[in-house]
Amino acid sequence: MGSDLTCAACHGADAHGGRHDIHMQPIDTPALNCEALIQMKQKDSGGNPTEYSRDDFRGAVVEGHHTAGNQLDQNMPRGQMTD
Q1: Contacts with 46 (C-beta within 8 Å, 6 or more apart), sequence order
Q2: Which residue, 50, 52, 56, is CA-closest to 37?
Q3: What is the mean pLDDT of residues 42-57?
Q4: What confidence score (pLDDT) does residue 17 get?
Q5: Domain ranges of the chain
Q6: What is the pLDDT of residue 43?
Q7: CA separation, residue 31 to residues 38, 46, 49, 83 (Å)
Q8: Is the predicted pLDDT of residue 80 greater than 80, yes or no?
Q9: Whether 40 contacts 52, CB under 8 Å
Q10: Beta strands 18-22 and 49-50: pairing type?
């Protein structure tokens, strides 16, 4: 992502999230472990649950979009990803 900031810096080495101080500002970050991503299911056009996908991950990291459609917190860094 072009910086020293990694996902673990905010979401924790175990990806369980929590409260962290970033740029001297306390922020609460969600868990990003397997269980949390499984719970972030969406529904397809037929109302069937879908799994958290690579496109969902890309949307969060590159565009700052949550699977629910809203924007992620401004403290969430945006970066580039290769295929």
Answers
A1: none
A2: 52
A3: 76
A4: 92
A5: 1-32, 41-66
A6: 65
A7: 11, 28, 20, 24
A8: yes
A9: yes
A10: unpaired
> What confidence score (pLDDT) does residue 1 get?
42
- Residue 63 vs residues 32, 45, 55, 58, 78: alpha-carbon distances, Å: 17, 22, 11, 7, 6
- The token duo for 37 is 């991503």
CB 49 within 8 A of CB 43: yes
Q: Which of 57, 52, 49, 55 is nearest to 40 (CA)?
A: 52
Instruction: Report pLDDT for 3.
Output: 56
Single-letter code of the amino acid located at 19: R
Q: Which residue has the higher pLDDT, 12 or 43?
A: 12
Closest CA to 67 of 29, 27, 37: 37
70 CB-near residues (< 8 Å, 6+ apart): none
Structure tokens at 70: 């809203």
